[in-house]
Amino acid sequence: MRATIIHGAGDVRVETVPDPKILEPTDALVRVVSACICGSDLWPYRSMPASEIGARIGHEFLGLVEDTGAGLEGFKSGDLVVAPFVWSDGTCDFCHQGLQTSCRHGGMWARDGIDGGQGEAVRVPQAAGIGALSPPGAHVAGEHAESDRVSGTHRPDRVEHRHAEAVGVAAWCRPAVEWAQLLAACGDHKIDVPAGR
Length: 197
What we know:
Largest sheet: 4 strands, antiparallel
Distance between the termini: 40 Å
CATH superfamily of the largest domain: Medium-chain alcohol dehydrogenases, catalytic domain
Number of strands: 12
Number of helices: 4
């Protein structure tokens, strides 16, 4: 499959990488339909030392479930899912407090052998923690710039923003002003969710 590989500051290439595979019973394979470039991707883009091998890059993607491990419940092939900034199991004490970045069993995309979100497909570890499913006909604008699909010509009547936070709420404003008839913001951040209303 094809995926972005960063080889140094200003040097991002599309290269062929191995197809992801289910490795653990809690994994899901997700076909990426929309990926974002997050502000945190810009740090290595501006300052990463040159590397012959390079590294995968990207997180926060929207995709369709293609396959699941035997131990993963609640997902089936064809489900639309949103991957947030980090991968997490959604079950630990930190996840229950809305602190997925501190998940006891989670980690960062594009690190330690985990796929990056800027590729054709991703193995999602601990996939129970990936974004919830969207209702039929809704457009999901996930954490940060998953709303990049909204900026195209597709104009859904309903827009749902998950993991509502400051940058994502800002990205959510265009459909709110220009065309969406129904908007929904979901999140654990008590300060940011009211700001999105």
